[in-house]
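User: Here's a structure from my thesis project, written as C-alpha cells. My advisor, Dr. K., wants to see whether a designed sequence matches the one we expressed. Can you design one independently, without my sequence as a hint?
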C-alpha cells in the first residue's frame, strides 16, 4: 500500500492526545461518608472493572478514528505493478473511432454517442491541470495539439461520423508523435472503438514503456450487414451498341439466409438491369447484370441493394465513357493491306487511317488506341521508342513482319519493348493446331467449339523466341509447338506479334474465319481501360486521357447535388493527365470533371468497404492478443457495465482506499457514541 500525500502521515502524532487524556484522570471525586460500608465493597470493585474496560474501549475507538481520518487525507492506494500516481501534469490522448461501423446501435444509442460520453467521463476523471488530445479518423490538424479540459469538450461536440477508417497502429503512432511535442512523465492514451478485426492490427504494435495505452471496446446490439463489395466488367469494350456484362460482388455478413434480395443497376438516371439474388448466411455471390449500350458519351450510375441499419455500403457508384469510334492507325512500308482495309475502313464504329512509314507524325500517336505495323522492312530506333511510350501508356500494337524483314532492327524493337522477338525464318509447311480459348480475344466468339476445327495453314513463318517472359500469353500455336500469334502486356498496353506476313504466300490466315474476330477484338481491347471507381481515403491518383489546358482554364471536379466543387492537383505524365484529389472528396458519389466550360468525363468515388465486415474483437480476445504479443503497457478496459471514472482509477492509478478510511473513521465514531451512551452506568 502507498499514499498519494504521505507527508500528511505526520498528523498521526495527534494520537497522543486521546492517550494523554486517558492516562491522566482530571475528574475530582467528592467523598461521601457512610455509617456502614460493608455492603458497598463488592459493588465498588465491580464498578471499577467496568469503568476501566469502558475507558479502554473508548480510547481504542478514538485512536482508530484519528488514524483512519489521517489515512483518508493521505489517500492510500494499492498500486498497479508499482505505478506511482501523478496528481498533475498528465498528458491524456483520447481516440474516438468515428468510422461508419460506429453508427451501429447499442443499449445507450449509437456507438459514436456512447464513445463521446465515455470520452467526457475520462476527461472528468482527471485534474483540471492535465492536458488532453482528441484524435478521430479524420486526422485533422487541430487534433494534433493538447488542450485544456474545457477546450477538449468543445472539440468533442464537433465529432461526427466520417468516411475514413484508420488502423490501430496508425492511431498509436499519431498519439506517440503528439506526446513527443510536450514534456511530461505521465503519458496515457485511450482508444474508444468497436475494434473491428479489419482495423485492429495488434501484430504491428510495439511496446513503449513511456506510455500506458488502454483499449476501451464498445459492443453493438446487432452485427449484421449485406453490402456490395465491388464491381467490374467482364469485357470492358465501351462502344456504342456493344453488349456489356457487369459483375457485382455482394456479401452477406449475417447469420440469416436471405432470399430474393433485389439488386438494381441505374445508369444516367435510368434503371438498366435488375436481379433477385439468394444469399446464404455468411456468404458472398457474384451477380452478372447484362445490358446493351445504346448511347455514346459519359455514363454515370450505381448498383444498389437494400439493407438496414448499416446503409453506407448499399450503393456502389461507377462511371465510364462510351466511345463513338475506335481510332486505328496502320503504318505501311509500301502498299496498304486490302485485308485490313476490308475489315476496318467501312466500319462506322472505327476511325481507320493508313500512314506511310516515311510520313509519320509521332505527336499524333496519342490520338490512336491501336497501331498496326504492316510489313515494315525496318523498324527505326525513333519509331521503336515512340511505340514503347505509346504501349506503356495504354495503347496496343500489332506487328505483321515483312517477308524480307531486317531481323536485327526487329529484335532491337522487341528488346526495347522487353517482349518476345523474331528469330530466323522457317520454310517448313505446317499449320495452326492449338487455340488459347481462354484468351480474351476469343471471349464470346464460339458458341460451341467444334471437335475438328479448321485452322490456318502455314507455308513459311518466322520463329518467335518464347518462354522467358512472365507476361507472355500465346493466342495460337503451330503443329511444331512454335508460336503463331502471341500477346504480351507491357505497362498499361499490349503488344501482339504474328509469325507471318499478311500475305497469301506465307499462310491463309488473312482469308481464314479466325482472322476477323482475332484482329477486330484486338482493336476492341486496345482502348485504355480507366478505373470504374476510386476509393475514398486511399489517396489514389486519377488517370485520364491527356487534355490540353490553356493558361486561363482550370480543371474542376463538381457534384451539383452535393454542392461540391474542388480543384484537384494535376500534372501531365506522357500521354495521360494525372489528378490528385487528396482528401477533398468526402462523400461517395459521381463527380464530373470540367475543363473550363467543357465537361470531360465522370469519376466515381466509393467508401472503403473495410468497415463493412462486421467482425469485432471481444474484450477477452483483445486482452489475449495483447498478452500473446507481449505488449505489457497495453490493457483493455471494460466500460460497458461500469462507471468510467472507477475503471480508470482502478487500472490506471490503482485501488484507491481513502473512501474506506472515511467509512472506518465514521464507524469508530459511531462505536464511541454507543460506548458512551450504553456503558454510562
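Assistant: Designed independently from the structure alone:
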Amino acid at each position: 500500500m502507498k499514499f498519494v500525500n504521505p507527508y500528511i502521515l505526520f498528523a498521526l502524532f495527534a494520537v497522543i492526545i486521546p492517550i494523554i487524556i486517558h492516562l491522566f484522570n482530571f475528574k475530582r471525586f467528592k467523598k461521601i461518608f457512610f455509617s456502614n460500608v460493608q455492603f458497598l465493597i463488592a459493588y465498588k470493585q465491580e464498578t471499577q472493572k467496568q469503568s476501566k474496560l469502558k475507558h479502554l474501549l473508548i480510547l481504542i475507538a478514538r485512536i482508530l478514528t484519528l488514524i483512519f481520518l489521517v489515512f483518508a487525507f493521505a489517500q492510500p492506494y494499492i498500486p498497479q505493478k508499482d505505478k506511482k500516481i501523478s496528481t498533475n501534469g498528465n498528458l491524456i490522448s483520447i481516440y474516438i473511432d468515428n468510422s461508419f461501423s460506429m453508427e451501429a446501435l447499442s443499449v445507450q444509442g449509437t456507438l459514436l454517442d456512447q464513445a463521446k460520453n465515455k470520452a467526457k467521463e475520462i476527461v472528468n476523471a482527471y485534474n483540471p491541470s492535465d492536458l488532453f488530445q482528441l484524435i478521430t479518423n479524420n486526422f485533422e490538424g487541430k487534433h494534433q495539439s493538447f488542450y485544456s479540459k474545457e477546450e477538449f469538450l468543445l472539440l468533442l461536440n464537433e465529432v461526427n461520423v466520417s468516411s475514413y477508417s484508420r488502423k490501430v497502429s496508425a492511431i498509436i503512432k499519431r498519439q506517440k508523435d503528439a506526446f513527443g511535442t510536450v514534456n511530461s512523465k505521465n503519458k496515457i492514451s485511450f482508444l474508444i472503438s468497436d475494434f473491428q478485426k479489419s482495423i485492429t492490427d495488434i501484430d504491428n504494435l510495439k511496446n513503449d514503456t513511456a506510455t500506458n495505452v488502454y483499449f476501451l471496446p464498445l459492443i453493438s446490439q446487432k452485427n449484421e450487414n449485406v453490402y456490395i463489395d465491388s464491381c467490374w466488367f467482364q469485357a470492358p469494350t465501351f462502344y456504342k451498341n456493344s453488349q456489356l456484362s457487369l459483375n457485382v460482388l455482394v456479401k452477406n455478413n449475417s447469420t440469416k439466409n436471405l432470399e430474393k434480395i433485389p439488386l438494381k443497376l441505374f445508369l444516367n438516371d435510368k434503371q438498366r438491369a435488375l436481379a433477385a439474388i439468394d444469399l446464404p448466411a455468411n456468404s458472398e455471390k457474384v451477380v452478372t447484370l447484362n445490358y446493351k449500350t445504346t448511347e455514346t458519351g459519359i455514363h454515370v450510375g450505381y448498383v444498389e441493394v437494400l439493407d438496414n441499419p448499416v446503409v453506407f455500403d448499399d450503393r456502389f457508384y461507377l462511371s465510364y465513357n462510351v466511345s463513338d469510334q475506335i481510332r486505328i492507325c496502320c503504318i505501311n512500308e509500301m502498299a496498304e493491306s486490302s485485308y485490313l482495309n476490308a475489315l476496318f475502313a467501312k466500319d462506322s464504329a472505327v476511325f481507320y487511317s493508313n500512314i506511310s512509314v516515311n510520313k509519320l507524325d509521332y505527336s499524333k500517336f496519342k490520338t490512336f488506341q491501336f497501331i498496326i505495323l504492316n510489313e515494315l522492312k525496318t523498324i527505326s530506333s525513333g519509331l521503336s521508342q515512340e511505340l514503347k511510350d505509346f504501349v506503356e501508356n495504354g495503347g496496343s500494337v500489332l506487328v505483321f513482319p515483312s517477308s524480307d524483314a531486317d531481323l536485327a532492327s526487329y529484335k532491337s524493337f522487341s528488346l526495347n519493348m522487353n517482349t518476345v522477338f523474331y528469330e530466323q525464318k522457317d520454310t517448313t509447311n505446317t499449320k495452326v493446331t492449338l487455340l488459347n480459348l481462354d484468351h480474351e480475344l476469343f471471349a464470346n466468339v464460339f458458341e460451341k467449339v467444334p471437335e475438328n476445327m479448321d485452322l490456318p495453314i502455314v507455308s513459311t513463318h518466322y520463329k518467335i523466341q518464347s518462354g522467358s517472359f512472365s507476361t507472355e500469353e500465346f493466342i495460337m500455336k503451330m503443329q511444331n509447338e512454335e508460336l503463331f500469334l502471341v500477346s504480351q502486356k507491357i505497362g498499361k498496353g499490349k503488344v501482339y506479334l504474328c509469325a507471318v506476313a499478311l500475305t497469301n504466300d506465307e499462310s491463309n490466315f488473312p482469308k481464314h474465319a479466325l482472322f476477323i474476330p482475332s484482329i477486330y477484338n484486338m482493336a476492341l481491347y486496345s482502348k485504355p481501360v480507366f478505373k470504374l471507381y476510386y476509393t475514398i481515403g486511399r489517396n489514389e491518383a486519377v488517370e485520364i486521357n491527356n487534355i490540353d489546358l490553356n493558361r486561363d482554364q482550370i480543371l474542376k471536379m463538381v457534384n451539383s447535388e452535393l454542392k461540391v466543387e474542388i480543384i484537384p492537383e494535376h500534372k501531365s505524365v506522357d500521354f495521360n493527365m494525372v489528378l490528385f484529389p487528396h482528401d477533398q472528396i468526402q462523400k461517395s458519389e459521381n463527380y464530373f470533371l470540367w475543363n473550363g466550360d467543357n465537361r470531360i468525363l465522370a469519376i466515381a468515388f466509393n467508401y472503403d468497404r473495410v468497415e463493412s465486415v462486421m467482425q469485432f474483437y471481444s474484450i477477452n480476445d483483445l486482452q489475449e492478443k495483447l498478452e500473446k504479443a507481449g505488449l505489457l503497457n497495453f490493457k483493455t478496459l471494460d466500460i460497458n457495465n461500469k462507471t468510467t471514472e472507477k475503471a480508470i482509477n482502478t487500472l490506471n492509478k490503482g485501488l484507491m482506499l481513502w473512501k474506506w478510511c472515511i467509512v472506518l473513521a465514521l464507524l469508530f465514531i459511531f462505536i464511541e457514541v454507543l460506548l458512551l451512551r450504553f456503558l454510562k452506568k
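When you compare it with your expressed construct, this may help: The radius of gyration is 41 Å.
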